[in-house]
Amino acid sequence: MYIIQFIRGFCMALADSVPGVSGGTIAFLLGFYDQFIGSMDDLLRGNLEKKKKALLFLIKLGIGWACGMVLAILVLTSVFESNIYAISSMFIGFIIFAIPIVVAEEKNALKASPVSALFALVGAAIVIAITWFNPVSGGSSMNLEHLDVRLGIYIFLAGAVAISAMVLPGISGSTLLLIMGLYLPVITAIKDILHFDFAAFPTVFIFGCGVLVGIFSVVKLIRKALERFRPQTIYLIIGLMLGSVYAVIRGPETLDTPQAALSFDTFSILFFVIGGAIILGLQMMKGVREA
């Protein structure tokens, strides 16, 4: 059904728009990560029949993603900042409730190579390290008013790196943009265009080109990893998801006006449960076959 793909894309965009959780994580949690990666790869390298099927899937998903991203940029960014602890608690609910689902669905692959569980430690360490060594607070961003060739190359590379992280479960591309000092400038530039101020169009165009190059560079690698080294890749993804809990806890420190990290005092049990309920509800939707 079209509505299922719309909701999937919408949820991915909400995750992609804020530091902490990636759209790839959402795709993996909702059980269509393989289809998502495979469709992007088929669109670039598949035969005509595969290209058509992939394009139809990605258009449905993309419409939901575009709507979610526009809504996030125009409205929800301020909501996230004013209710960051509730939102962070909900994101943790997403992750904690989803991991057992992932383990259950991939139990055959995980049992096939128990020693590969070491990759979970590697995955968690990667996300924790990226979060720990993040030197940029929310207010420390780069000035893009004077765009030159060197800055343009930097923006292009940042787009490629960020989208690669967004595709990978567990690593937030928005967090990497924060580290590079580009999260607020890029979000502001996109917001200006949505308000019909096209002064920032060159910046967004260069960033978008980097995104396209990055996404089609990484999908082939991920697809091959899932096909040839599935146990190791699944354990790595689980580790990335576990590590993202730490990234979410530290998330308030990366806001425009930095706040204290999530603690037991600011943690919301209610929103944690809501996050878990959403994951369980979306899991039930996976049983609905698409038209």
From TrEMBL:
Any Pfam family the entry gives: VCA0040-like
Superkingdom: Bacteria
UniProt entry tagged with the keyword Transcription regulation: no
Organism the protein comes from: Eubacterium plexicaudatum ASF492
Keywords: Membrane, Transmembrane, Transmembrane helix
Protein name according to UniProt: DUF368 domain-containing protein
The keyword Transmembrane is assigned to this record: yes
InterPro entries: VCA0040-like
Transmembrane segments: 6-33, 54-78, 84-103, 115-133, 153-171, 200-221, 233-249, 261-282
Coiled-coil stretches: none
